[in-house]
Amino acid sequence: MNRPVLGIPQNTIEILQKYNFSFQKKFGQNFLIDTHVLDKIIRAADINKEDMVLEIGPGIGTMTQFLAEAAGKVVAVEIDKNLIPILEDTLGSYENVSVINEDVLKLDIRGLVAEENGGKPVKVVANLPYYITTPIIMGLFEEHVPLTSITVMVQKEVADRMQTGPGNKDYGALSLAVQYYAKPYIVANVPPNCFMPRPKVGSAVIRLTCHAHPPVEVEDERLMFDIIRASFNQRRKTLANGLNNSDKITFPKDVILEAVEQLGKGDSVRGESLTLEEFARLSNSLARRR
């Protein structure tokens, strides 16, 4: 690399001091300062020169440098305008990197991928701000952005939630949504001392390999996710009561009960014991009764 490697702590400190940068709590900024972790992320994301990578929240460009060495093209989206001059400095010598100063949640990412990569699937790599991890990942899936994979650093607890199955206390709407769109795999756990400033919680790198086709057939995706959300909103209630109490589920109680009974798990079954396939069956059963 032809610039100081930012994954080395003293280089990070130097660039922060040079620009008199102060961390913004509202943006959840924690910069990686461990080159072993950075190497692991690049390997897990399986990047080569054919790939365009979308990086969300490049910070000072720590991971962007590693991505630029591995990928054909990197487009980095950074919300904090104070970081733009730093990124121009740290990434200036990479001709395959462009930086966009925008809020990723307001950006038309499908349009961006069409423009920058001819609509071909991209790989997303990010050290995500923990407070908006779920909206970012779900936004990418729900907008049907063409993706090969998403490899992200997230809060350990969130990574566990994404890959867990029925009967586990971490199992919920996020687990099902992620597993509908992708196959999750936790690559590595990352302790707080790998970041500056240190977060109060442990982190994990998770790779979500996107399905070419969802693993279950659903007649009405929105209805299935409304059912999933309703069944986890009131965990203590039975599945039938949870659905009946939801303003999003407009079927009469007897219709809901009949569809639940068809699952063959008894009428006192709770949502947390259902697999993705069973939620799909329940959703399709209700969709046909409209």
Structure in words:
Helix 6 runs parallel beside helix 8 and helix 9 packs across helix 12. It is elongated, with a radius of gyration of 21 Å. It has two domains: 202 residues, Rossmann fold (3-Layer(aba) Sandwich); 67 residues, Orthogonal Bundle (Helicase, Ruva Protein, domain 3). With 290 residues, the protein is an alpha/beta fold. The chain has twelve helices and nine strands.
Briefly note the CATH topology name of the largest domain: Rossmann fold
- CATH superfamily descriptor of the largest domain: Vaccinia Virus protein VP39
Residue runs with pLDDT of under 50 for 5 or more positions: none
Global outline: elongated
Termini separation comes to: 60 Å
Structural class: alpha/beta
Name the beta content range. Answer: 15-25%
Please give the domain count: 2
Overall helicity: 25-40%
Strand arrangement, largest sheet?
A: 4-3-2-5-6-9-7
Could you tell me the number of beta strands?
9
Mean pLDDT: 94
Helix count, DSSP H or I runs of 4 or more residues: 12
H/E order of the elements? HEHEHEHEHEHEHHEEEHHHH
CATH architecture of the largest domain: 3-Layer(aba) Sandwich
CATH domain class of the largest domain? Alpha Beta
The gyration radius over C-alpha positions equals 21 Å
